[in-house]
Amino acid sequence: MMDPVPAPEFDRYAEEYAKLLDDPIRRKFAGETAFFFERKWELLEKYMQRIGMLPEQSSWLDVGCGAGELLRLGSARFANAAGCDVSTGMMKACEGLHVVTQTDPSRLPFEDSSFDLVTVVCVYHHVEPAGRPALTSEIARVLRPGGTACIIEHNPFNPATQIIVRRTPVDENAQLLTARTARRLLSAAGLGVDQWTSYFLYFPQKMYRKARGIEALLEKVPAGGQYAAFGRKR
Questions:
Q1: Which residue segment(s) compose the domain that 161 sits in?
Q2: Are 65 and 81 in contact (CB under 8 A)?
Q3: Other CB atoms within 10 Å distance of the CB of residue 19
Q4: The pairing of beta strand 115-121 with beta strand 59-63
């Protein structure tokens, strides 16, 4: 008799996910969790404008979409937007969104060349390093020619990020990766790496409203709380 397949790790966290993320530093940085997703969406909008991508004519996939926070912010802008996750428990909060269960962690449940944009937000640090190339190859597979993959991750060079990750229960098994590692994964999957790697989350929520111009000037300095790395399918 075969051993039962273990439930995805995040199914155990789903009901208390917001509580488990709570941290004094994180709370002081942003009074609302929504701020972190708003910053990611701002960054994605800026990138799409830069390369001339028209969301209203494009398809978007958010891999590891969780409770769908980022999808709720941006899905209405796209002709088609979808999410997938291995955790059905997390996706219970995705009512009204197009989400699909990823039954096989090593394969995305979509056809080849289906999307113009694929985002993977704070997912890779939960994936064993040996499994990351396969995930990236799957992302490249579902991208259309000329499409963009975006990896957003915690920046291991940021001391506050390191502290928060070490004491957050959902990150118990996390293995952070640098932007350089993210770019190498994109390149190894055959994606042309865009040099516009952006570091962000330098300033707390209240300060950012007044200092967004300064943060924009710091986007190439590898000190922000998170970073975004981009690769385009040739």
A1: 9-233
A2: no
A3: 9
A4: parallel
Residue 208 lies in a domain: yes
3-state secondary structure of 201: coil
Please tell me the predicted confidence (pLDDT) of residue 13.
52
Question: Is residue 2 predicted with pLDDT exceeding 50?
Answer: no
Does residue 96 belong to any structural domain of this protein?
A: yes
pLDDT at residue number 27: 86
Q: What is the distance, to the nearest Å, from the Cα of residue 21 to the centroid of all Cα atoms in its chain?
A: 16
- 226-233 and 143-154: which strand pairing? antiparallel
Q: Is residue 1 part of a domain?
A: no
Span 74-100, pLDDT tens digits: 999 999 999 999 999 999 999 999 999
The C-alpha atoms of residue 73 and residue 190 are separated, in whole angstroms, by 30
CA 132 to chain centroid: 14
Residue 61 placed within a domain:
yes
pTM for this predicted structure? 0.91
Those residues whose C-beta lies under 8 Å from the C-beta of residue 141, and which sit 6 or more positions away, are 108, 112, 113
User: What's the structural domain count of the chain?
Assistant: 1
Instruction: Read off the DSSP letter of residue 174.
Output: -
